[in-house]
Amino acid sequence: MANLPDESAQIAIPEAKPLKITRGWEILASKVSGYNTAVVMGAARARTGLLLSVLNKLQEFDPMTNVDAASVKTLEDHATFSLLVRLHKNPSLKLTELPKELGDFAQKTPEGWMMPIDKLVKMEVEGADRPALLRDICEILDTEKIDVKDLDTDISVKFPKNTEDFSGGTPMARLTLGLYLPREAVQNMEAIRTRLAGLGLDVRME
C-alpha cells in the first residue's frame, strides 16, 4: 500500500488525495458558568474527527454531559467551534474540573484526515435531544471520513397536542450540517441515512 502524504506536503485545498493532519490544537479551552454549564471553544486545522474527538472526551468526562448548543464554521482549511455544555443531573461540582481535563486533552494531537471532496451536502436532522446525541451523529459520519464543515443547532420543546400541561414537554434538537463528502461517502449515502435514522432522527438532505 502506498504511503499517504502528511500535511507537510502542503497540497492545495481541496486535496487531490487523502492528507493526514498532524498539527495540534491552536485553541481548546473551556469556561465554567454556574454549577452545571460550561462553554467549550476550539480551533485547529480542519480534519475528519476533529469535533468528534472533543465530544468523546466530554462523554468520557461525564456520560450525562449534554451539548445544548453547538456551532462549527470552516474557512478554507481552518475550523472553529463553540459548544454550550450542561450536566443534566443534580447540581455537581464536577464541572469545575472540566477546564483542567480539556487543558490536558489539548496537549494531544487529534487524529484525522483531509479528504478529497466529491460533494458538499446540507443535511438537517431532527429528533429528541439527549446526552451524546451529537457525538453519535458525528461518529456515524466519521466512519465514512465525512468532515463537518458547518454546524448549527436549535433546541425547542415539543408538547403533546391538546394539552394544558406544559410541564412535561420533550426537548427536541434540530441540527443543520454542512458536510464535505469524499466519493465513497457519496456512494454510501443511503446507508448513512439509514444509520442516522436508527438514532431516532428524521433526516433530510439537499
Question: How would you explain this protein's 3D organization?
Answer:
The protein is of the alpha+beta class. It has one domain (20-205): Alpha-Beta Plaits, CATH 3.30.70. The protein is 22% helix and 38% strand. It has helices at 50-61, 98-105, 133-143, 183-187, 189-197; strands at residues 19-20, 27-32, 37-45, 65-75, 78-87, 113-114, 119-128, 147-158, 170-181, 202-205. The strands form two sheets. It has an eight-stranded antiparallel β-sheet. A two-stranded antiparallel ribbon has the order 1-6. Strand 2 (27-32) and strand 3 form a beta hairpin. Helix 1 (50-61) crosses helix 3 (133-143). The protein is flat and about 55 Å long. The model is unreliable at 1-12 (pLDDT under 50).
Topology:
Blueprint: E1 19-20, E2 27-32, E3 37-45, H1 50-61, E4 65-75, E5 78-87, H2 98-105, E6 113-114, E7 119-128, H3 133-143, E8 147-158, E9 170-181, H4 183-187, H5 189-197, E10 202-205
Structure at a glance:
The chain has one domain: 2-Layer Sandwich (Alpha-Beta Plaits), CATH 3.30.70.260. Helix content is 22%, strand content 38%.
Tags for this entry?
single chain; 206 residues; alpha+beta; Alpha-Beta Plaits; 8-stranded antiparallel beta sheet; 5 helices; 10 strands; 22% helix; 38% strand; disordered N terminus
Q: What is the arithmetic mean of pLDDT? A: 87
CA distance, first residue to last residue: 35 Å
CATH architecture: 2-Layer Sandwich
What is the name of the CATH class?
A: Alpha Beta
The parts where pLDDT drops under 50 for at least 5 residues are 1-12
Major pleated sheet: 8 strands, antiparallel
How many DSSP-defined strands?
10
* Percent range for β-strand residues: 35-45%
> Which range best describes the helical content: under 10%, 10-25%, 25-40%, 40-55%, 55-70% or over 70%?
10-25%
The CATH topology is Alpha-Beta Plaits
Total of domains: 1
If helices are DSSP runs of H or I spanning 4 or more residues, what is the number of helices? 5
Shape: flat
